[in-house]
Amino acid sequence: MSGGGGGDRPGSGAGGTMKTPSDFLKSIRGRPVVVKLNSGVDYRGILACLDGYMNIAMEQTEEYINGQLKNKYGDAFIRGNNGTYNTIRIF
């Protein structure tokens, strides 16, 4: 048997509420992100949408190769279910 309330669970945070992955994904929409592909190419822009397959839609997207700006796109879509990227940084 478990002793204690639901707020005592590990990882529940100081407020006793636990954030689900879905809550986290909703909270980062509209924020600047960097998506780094396994190829080393970075895409920097505003996160518009992210789904359960890790497909990413971005706005005001810039493409960087070897740290240098190569292209600017209004909107970009990165397909995620084939494991094309390995890092998403949120600013």
From TrEMBL:
Biological process, per Gene Ontology: maturation of SSU-rRNA; mRNA splicing, via spliceosome
| Annotated coiled-coil segments of the chain | none
**Hey, which family's this protein in?**
Belongs to the snRNP Sm proteins family. SmF/LSm6 subfamily.
Q: Which residues form the Sm domain?
A: 20-91
Enumerate the GO terms in the molecular function aspect: RNA binding
Quick check: keyword Isomerase in the entry? no
The record's InterPro entries line, in alphabetical order, gives: Lsm6/sSmF, LSM_dom_sf, Sm, Sm_dom_euk/arc
Keyword set for this entry? Cytoplasm, mRNA processing, mRNA splicing, Nucleus, Ribonucleoprotein, RNA-binding, Spliceosome
Its name, as the record gives it, is Sm domain-containing protein
Which SUPFAM superfamilies does the UniProt entry name for this protein? Sm-like ribonucleoproteins (SSF50182)
What organism does the UniProt record list as the source? Miscanthus lutarioriparius
Instruction: List compositional bias (Gly residues) regions by residue number.
Output: 1-16
Q: What does this protein do?
A: Component of LSM protein complexes, which are involved in RNA processing. Component of the cytoplasmic LSM1-LSM7 complex which is involved in mRNA degradation by promoting decapping and leading to accurate 5'-3' mRNA decay. The cytoplasmic LSM1-LSM7 complex regulates developmental gene expression by the decapping of specific development-related transcripts. Component of the nuclear LSM2-LSM8 complex which is involved splicing nuclear mRNAs.
Instruction: Tell me where it resides.
Output: Cytoplasm; Nucleus
Q: Name one GO cellular component term.
A: nucleolus
PANTHER family according to UniProt: OS02G0510100 PROTEIN (PTHR11021:SF11), SMALL NUCLEAR RIBONUCLEOPROTEIN F SNRNP-F (PTHR11021)
Q: Annotated region Disordered: where?
A: 1-24
